[in-house]
Amino acid sequence: MKEGEKWMTKTANSCMIVAALIATIIFAAAFTVPGGIKDDTGYPHFLRKASFICFAIFDIISLISSSCSILIFLSILTARYAEEYFLRPLPRKLILGLLTLCISIVATMAVFCTTLYIVFDEGTKVPALLAIALASILIGQKVALSSSGPIDPAAGLGSYVETLLRKSSSEFIVVIFQMNDQYYSLNSVHAFNMGKMRIKLCRGWITKSREIYHPSMHLCRVRGDGNAAAKSLFWQARKRLSFVLTFKSERGRNVAIMIARKHALDCNVVLAGSEDRV
């Protein structure tokens, strides 16, 4: 999760700088219109030309999209980087931010091309046409590179969780470390099954606990030193019945928490336990 958070903040920060530069340039271009303005009326010289109208439209689009991109990336930098946020909110914000940034880049290139077209309107249009052709090639390559693969800040965790959520239930192999705050002497291996309506902890035909999602249920990580704590979660199935379960890996533990909280949310239940259990 730390690597995903670091990657997300670095990407958002870099993109926000680019969006801010575009917004600054486009804002200045709005007051330095090509061809200048008339001294007697204060209106632009090429106000009636179609190319000037295109310049104004693309300038507005670029300014609005770059401003929206800045706000989106700023919301990413100030967001909470909990496991469930890597599933949908953060990737969606990042995709939307990149989309608005791409729109602002395209609109900025269009502003540049229309400016050249206006300037060379009375003479040769070769420089303007060359600039338009070159800009089209660069924009096409940029779009192709930006859409070459999925955005997955958590090293495949988000797509893996999405795949598991399509199933009716997901099962993980766990070891009961504690039961009701007492060390579980048998230290036995169980199956931790999370369905769309309930969670079940069982071993073969023997069911240790089977509970539907309800407001008093708790599910969170176990905070502490050592490898065991990094792979464990605390699950309070109901009053006077709680478990500390150890997974095979920290990744499996994180996936289980994300799936359980998503299924619970679909049942209008918010699983408590945002704070780690000591």
UniProtKB/TrEMBL annotation:
Biological process, per Gene Ontology: actin filament organization; regulation of stomatal movement
Domain Stomatal closure-related actin-binding protein PH, first and last residues per copy: 170-276
Pfam families: PGG (PF13962), SCAB-PH (PF17684)
Signal peptide: none
Domain of life: Eukaryota
GO terms assigned for molecular function: actin binding
Domain PGG, first and last residues per copy: 5-119
Transmembrane regions listed in the UniProt entry: 12-30, 50-74, 94-120
InterPro entries for the chain: PGG_dom, SCAB, SCAB-PH
Alphabetically ordered keywords of this record: Membrane, Transmembrane, Transmembrane helix
PANTHER family reported for this sequence: STOMATAL CLOSURE-RELATED ACTIN-BINDING PROTEIN 1, STOMATAL CLOSURE-RELATED ACTIN-BINDING PROTEIN 3
Protein name: PGG domain-containing protein
High-level lineage: Eukaryota, Viridiplantae, Streptophyta, Embryophyta, Tracheophyta
